[in-house]
Design goal:
Elements: H1 10-23, E1 34-40, E2 43-48, E3 53-56, E4 59-61, E5 65-67, E6 83-84, H2 87-90, E7 98-102, H3 106-115, E8 121-125, H4 135-143, E9 147-150, E10 153-161, E11 164-172, E12 178-182, E13 185-188, E14 192-194, H5 216-220, E15 239-241, H6 253-271
This protein binds flavin-adenine dinucleotide.
Flavin-adenine dinucleotide (FAD) binds at residues 32-34, 62-64, 67, 80, 85-86, 89, 195, 198, 243-245, 251-254, 256.
């Protein structure tokens, strides 16, 4: 995040955002789980798990997404202490080191190429016998001298010492053979799941993975309006989406904050029309 040259723990950053919003009179209702939304006559109603109901003229969906996890022993313990999900964010900590990348899709191959800028070696562990990434990215990854690809590999356990990851226990799912891989860090790229379950049954257009389609992506999805949809507008007038929950978002905190600010201005303009 610009302005934090030494980084900042997520929880402290969130607290600062909360304090700043409260200073400007924003009412924050904590621990409210939105379970459903419903739109009627330019009003959008929100239902929570606690049984409350709120309605508003405009709505901004910014519920983020979750990195998919392997759910193997040691994963929780070494999160942020050797296990990461973002090469741009955490790759620079691994200058001259050996990194394992887990995954076989576009992100795994693409992010491995980025990690090569820092790491001395990147070992990509692919569960299947081939990449599912685009051909051009596969070729680049396979041709990179710093990258080694190991097929049919499944991580069984993350192991460490002194509260820092240093080893992966692997199993070859073809032969059943177990092995160990000494690493300085591991990056998991097996996809992200958007927090959009509460949108099931709503008319909002989502993409095939459940991310909210906005702006031009609505047209790609076959949604037709008489005009080009505004950049963060969803398929329902008055409902906007920003941040990681949005299809095509960068999954970076600075972009999420920027999209939030853009959405606020779009909502201000929208409210003048209803
Ligand atoms: C471990 C980790 C490290 C990261 N490091 C970096 C980094 O170094 N640099 C960087 O740029 N990015 C980093 N990211 C990514 C960054 O955190 C996200 O890009 C950013 O937080 C996205 O903001 P957002 O507001 O879209 O979503 P979030 O920050 O995920 O916020 C979504 C909020 O919505 C709430 N919510 C979800 N569903 C519901 C519901 N049904 N009802 C009510 N509330 C709901 C969630 O509880 C959460 O509070 C990291 C992410 C993780 C997990």
């Amino acid at each position: 995040m610009p302005g934090f040259p030494d980084g900042i723990p997520g929880i402290e950053f969130a607290n600062r955002l909360r304090q700043q919003a409260e200073r400007f009179g924003v009412e924050l209702l904590q621990a409210q789980d939105v379970t459903r939304i419903y739109s009627h006559d330019n009003y959008h109603c929100i239902f929570t798990g606690g049984g409350s109901e709120y309605s508003a003229r405009a709505l901004l969906i910014a519920t983020g997404s979750r990195y998919r996890r392997l759910h193997v022993p040691g994963e929780d313990k070494y999160l942020g202490a050797g296990i990461h999900f973002c090469a741009t964010c955490d790759g620079p900590f691994y200058k001259g080191k050996h990194i394992a990348v887990i995954g076989g899709g576009n992100s795994a191959a693409e992010e491995s190429l980025l990690l090569c800028k820092f790491a001395h070696k990147v070992t990509i562990l692919v569960r299947g016998g081939e990449f599912t990434a685009s051909k051009i990215i596969q070729e680049k990854a396979l041709a990179d001298p710093k990258i080694e690809v190991r097929w049919h590999m499944e991580v069984q356990e993350f192991v460490g010492a002194d509260a820092k990851l240093n080893k992966l226990v692997l199993c070859n799912n073809q032969t059943g053979e177990f092995s160990e891989l000494n690493v300085d860090g591991a990056f998991i790229f097996i996809g992200q799941t958007p927090n959009t379950r509460f949108l099931a049954g709503s008319p909002l257009v989502l993409n095939e993975w459940g991310f909210v389609a906005t702006g031009h992506d609505l047209i790609h999805a076959g949604f037709t309006t008489g005009h080009e949809p505004e950049v963060l507008a969803t398929s329902v007038p008055g409902i906007f989406a920003a941040g990681d929950v949005r299809e095509g978002s960068t999954k970076q905190v600075a972009s999420a904050a920027g999209e939030g600010a853009t959405a606020a201005l779009l909502i201000r303009e929208y409210l003048k029309t209803v």
